[in-house]
Amino acid sequence: MTPARTLRLRLTLIAAAMLASACAVGPAYERPSAPVPAHYKEAEGWVPAAPADAIDRGAWWSLFRDPTLDALAARIEISNYNIAAAAAAYAQARAVVREQRASLFPVVTLNTNASRSDNNRSTGSSNSSGTSYQASIGASWEPDLWGRLQRAVDSAGASAQVSEAELASAKLSAHGELAVNYFSLRQTDAQAALLDRTLAGYERSLQIARNRYEAGIAPRTDVLQAESQLASAQAERVGLARQRAALEHAIAVLLGQP
After folding, report:
1. Are 153 and 229 in contact (CB under 8 A)?
2. Cβ atoms within 10 A of the Cβ of 151, count?
3. Element of type H or E holding 31
4. Count of CB atoms situated within 10 Å of the CB of 79
5. DSSP helix/strand/coil, 174
6. Residue 108, SS3?
7. Which residues pair with residue 135 across a beta bridge?
8. pLDDT digits over 53-107, tens only?
9. Do 110 and 135 contact (CB within 8 A), yes or no?
10. What tens digit of pLDDT does each residue of 125-160 get?
């Protein structure tokens, strides 16, 4: 091989390598390493944090052993619109992964066709008719020379993982909000029941103060004080009823019901 041909061959190889590097999508992602000491001298006795975000919580609300809460939590995953939207996004992301993964494999197409002919001769005694069939098969395949298709599959898979995490986060958030609102409502009911008994006592006290005033053995101020005490408790009872209604509406929103 002459020196000129050797030089041309080398230039051709260099140009091909540069073209390949220009067409490549990019190198595989590698998580950068960060040096972390085993312990810090200022953190004597402290234990490193152990995040458990990836652990499935399961039906954690069942620990409270409340049948009503269990029934409401079961309805959230069916009727909550945020969870439904997150589930739809996750299903769409998985469909994109399947679509991108299918591009790595050959595509086979099959076409069929049928035609019928009928020729009648009025002058003769022979009739001819027939049916013809045609079938064609084809295949196409795009080789993944520069890793573009594989990068698309990896990107779609990462998006699907994000959608899966968002779905889990939406479920956890909805169930947590439901539990908080439910127990707040039960707390409001307990406070209302206690306040109802208190109101009954204040009404008896007011009646006693009025009887004593009418009998002339108690001043008018005792009656006014008892009336003020009763009115304050009644106003607090109205506030509890309004608070309970707000919590009830909040639970209805979580369940996707008016």
Report:
1. no
2. 17
3. none
4. 13
5. helix
6. strand
7. 112
8. 667 778 888 999 999 999 999 888 777 777 878 778 778 777 777 776 666 666 6
9. yes
10. 555 566 776 767 765 656 655 566 677 777 777 888
